[in-house]
Design a protein that fits this description.
single chain, Rossmann fold, five-stranded parallel β-sheet, 14% strand, globular
Length: 421
């Protein structure tokens, strides 16, 4: 099978000739192993029991080989991190180590942070430009430039094709499977999270069925700021003795630590003031296909508008927003920018995606699962621009239409499939 280049390859091309160690983080199945192993002269796969036991007894083994050494799933033997860190202190050459991990370490694990020595790089499921379904014609970098570039291009993709992309997922191995097998692979992924990955990361799950319900409920509130208390309530409505709130917070922390939850943090502008900004993150799973599978959504049900009730949006609208967030996050990272959402308390004004440059200026984006754009779809973008004059470098609506253009008010309307690096 031919390798499909990923946007993190650009970062690795830039960093490895300059840095002695790079650590790629992300959920299982996003492609960390394939991407990293192509660059390695020696690979240690710690998810293989014999290799894991060998390195647990003697972690210095990773220093033996020359060239680039790739240490896959290093958190299974945390001592390896300190071995690499010390090697850097003693003058390891650029490109000496690549590490990959599918989990953050538990808080009580004693390893040095590696700050200023080991650079971390997040890898997410494949963004739309990485899936080779369309040739992007609009650059996120150009939109971030502040020049308000001309936007153009056309696509044949419409809402049904975006539904296909949501359900097909951005996990490389899963999206290549036929629809019937793909659903089973997604079911298996969810089972692995609950029965294996959670335990492997050090958690004690006494009632896996409650964790599954909690995860399904989280998927059902995709792209909302629903409280964790309401998620817990919805996950166990018939329980006489409900899991404690601390247990629910434990579920959240666990699933974030293994990168299955990928919440979008709230944006608070620095050196500027906006009234009543909420601080709650927007809920997103690492891939919207997981949310769809957890609630039993199908292409037919999504197109019909069926699914969990989400205030002012359909479940398809929420999943499309999640697909847009997934894509923009990957593109923003490639442009050294950070990604947030903005919502006033009460929901008077909200912006689905806020991409912040290093100089704190922002690109404001709404995601709409519609081929057309109404005045209401741009109202919050224009409001933010008015509130922060000179701070908003551009305004965008990502939709399911067939062409990219600018409205008379300056808002760029861009089919999601046409957005690229």
């Amino acid at each position: 099978m031919d390798y499909v280049p990923r946007l993190v390859d650009e970062a690795l091309d830039f960093w490895l000739p300059e840095l002695p160690a790079v650590s790629i983080e992300g959920a299982k199945g996003v492609g960390k192993t394939v991407t990293s192993s192509r660059r390695a002269n020696e690979t240690f796969s710690l998810d293989q029991k014999n290799t894991q036991l060998n390195l647990a007894q003697n972690p210095d083994i990773v220093l033996v080989s020359e060239g680039t050494t790739f240490i896959d799933e290093w958190p299974l033997v945390p001592e390896v991190w300190d071995v690499v860190r010390r090697a850097i202190d003693y003058g390891a050459l650029p490109g000496r180590f690549l590490l990959a991990g599918s989990a953050d370490l538990p808080i009580d694990t004693q390893v040095h942070s590696g700050a200023s020595r080991i650079v971390k790089l997040m890898m997410r499921p494949m963004a739309l430009p990485e899936r080779n379904i369309e040739m992007p014609t609009v650059s996120l970098a150009a939109l971030l430039s502040g020049q308000r570039p001309e936007v153009n291009g056309t696509t044949n993709l419409a809402t049904p094709e975006y539904v296909d992309e949501i359900l097909q997922s951005g996990f490389p191995a899963i999206r290549q499977a036929s629809p019937s097998i793909r659903d089973e692979l997604l079911n298996g992924y969810i089972d692995r999270v609950i029965y294996h990955d959670a335990v492997e990361s050090g958690a004690k799950i006494r009632r896996p069925e409650i964790l599954r319900k909690w995860l399904a409920t989280y998927g059902a509130v995709t792209a909302t700021t629903a409280s964790y208390a309401s998620i817990l309530q919805a996950a166990s409505p018939a329980e006489d003795v409900k899991p404690a709130k601390l247990t629910a917070m434990g579920y959240r922390d666990l699933l974030q630590r293994i990168f299955v939850l990928d919440p979008l943090p709230a944006w608070t502008p620095t050196f500027a003031h906006l009234d009543r900004l909420g601080q709650s993150p927007k809920h997103h799973l690492v891939d919207p296909a997981l949310a769809a599978r957890l609630v039993g959504a199908t292409k037919a049900s999504l197109v019909r508008g069926e699914g969990p009730s989400l205030n002012d949006s359909t479940f398809l609208g929420a999943l499309f927003e999640s697909l847009a967030v997934q894509t923009v996050r990957v593109l923003a990272q490639a442009n050294q920018a950070r990604t947030f959402h903005m919502r006033q308390q009460g929901g008077d004004h909200e912006v689905d995606i806020v991409v912040e440059r290093a100089d704190l200026k922002v690109l404001a984006i709404q995601a709409k699962v519609s081929p057309t754009v109404r005045p209401a779809d741009v109202a919050h973008l224009n409001w933010l621009d008015e509130q922060l004059p000179g701070r908003v470098v551009d305004k965008v609506v990502l939709n399911t239409g067939d062409r990219a253009f600018r409205r008379p008010d300056g808002v760029a309307v861009i089919p999601l499939a046409l957005l690229g690096r």
